[in-house]
Amino acid sequence: MIQIYNTQTRKKEEFTPIQEGKVKMYACGLTVYDYAHIGHARQQVTYDVISRYFKYRGYDVTYVRNITDIDDKIIKRANEQGIPYTELTEKFIKAFHSDVQALGLQTPTHEPRATEHIAEIIELIEKLIQNGLAYQVDNDVFYSVRSFKGYGKLSGKNIEDLESGARVDVMEKKKDPLDFALWKSAKPDEPKWASPWGEGRPGWHIECSVMSMKYLGETFDIHGGGRDLIFPHHENELAQSEGATKKPFVKYWVHNGFLNIDAEKMSKSLGNFLTIRDILKQFHPEVIRYFILTTHYRSPLDYTDQNVTNAQASLERFYTTQERLNTFVSAGQTPDKAQDVSDKLATFKEEFLASMDDDFNTAKVIGQVFEWVRFWNKALDENTASVSNVKNYLEIMADIHSVFGIFSSDTNNFLAALKEKAISDNELSEQDIQKLIVERKEAKKNKNFKRADEIRDELLAKGIQLKDLPDGTTTWSAV
User: Fold this and answer.
1) Is 98 exposed, middle or buried (0-12, 13-18, 19+ CB in 10 A)?
2) Domains (range + CATH), the chain
3) Rounded to 5 degrees, what are φ and ψ at 436?
4) CA nearest to 225, candidates 237, 240, 241
5) Rounded distance between C-alpha atoms, residue 361 and residue 344, angstroms
6) Chain-centre distance for alpha carbon 357
7) Residues 295, 301 contacting (CB under 8 angstroms)
8) Which of 120, 153, 165, 363 sits most deeply, having the most CB atoms within 10 A of its CB?
9) How many CB atoms are closer than 10 A to CB 6?
10) What gap in Å lies between CA 421 and CA 391, rounded to an integer?
11) In terms of pTM, does the model score above 0.85?
């Protein structure tokens, strides 16, 4: 039984799909006027994992992730650069796809663009006018917030307490300062489309109402996004959609928590704006996914270099252990003093399902995984591991990998990538490192421990850690 925290009801609820065996989910995508940042990465990884988990549990998932390709910020940026808005949006759509592909996101079922749905947007606005919830002033159309009796039920805001401010456009044309634009009249040097109210373009909120309902129906299961979208964007979406159809819009509203940089809100003015592509120059994509999933999706997440470096060290530990387990299974010999942990492994599988069923608690699953990492290292050191148990564990980890997009059975992919980066960053070669390893071995043989320690410390300062094995050989890993 999957439990989901519903923003609208402020409590966890048992997930019961509208249509048996099917999950229809919409998550807000990117407004494509700039490169995607680490906050976008958190949001996208969150809904990617939720979608994967429903699939793992046997549901037929229709996942829609939109692209906002017409918006005030897009127009402003294109005009500043003196290029058509389409040139700007195509550039950043391509960049976004590159970023999320690097992060291992699965392709959504549909990825609609706002500009491809102008006819449907006009049709929905006409319906709102007919229902007495929207009005035209000159070539603009506004939604009448006070005409929708349920306004505020998602965000919990009392309409009487709302005042016009930074988040609400103040225009003399409006009947009420809380009203918001459904259709904006054309201005010089702006993209425009023909409509019954004159040339213009859609407002932001109406775009998502149209795209979600077109691909998922007038009522669907899950609508996701960041906490910052609850008000006004999702509140306005709900008002528009239910005002037009007179049906419930979304059954479960899901919102991921904020991501801060060094405990501060990310912003360009503070100089702490981190794009996905810049971070991926520093860290392996799987490290970013792991870092995001170590915190429950509804909780705040603090990005610091140290936190992500710690995430990398944890993943390296996991893969080093996984490599040992793969080697152990390949040898195919179970020692006489091996202990049987079949029951504990069955509990591990149950714990994985229970944690994910409890509002997708990825952090708890990761904690469970590393309890097993500690167990297997001890069992391998003490020669008490069983081949059949290890195989069972690896099968469970394959299931977790299919949902999390981390903890792959291919250890070489991650460990080799770390080594390659360490070599590249320090302008070294594998031969250089092996030469120093040989020199260190000779130094130890000649009891020149000072030189042996110097070599070890020199390499460690370059992110290269040596490990002396019981058989007398030395290996290295990146740190």
Assistant:
1) middle
2) 3-270 (3.40.50.620), 313-410 (1.20.120), 426-478 (no CATH)
3) -70, -35
4) 237
5) 20
6) 18
7) yes
8) 120
9) 20
10) 31
11) yes
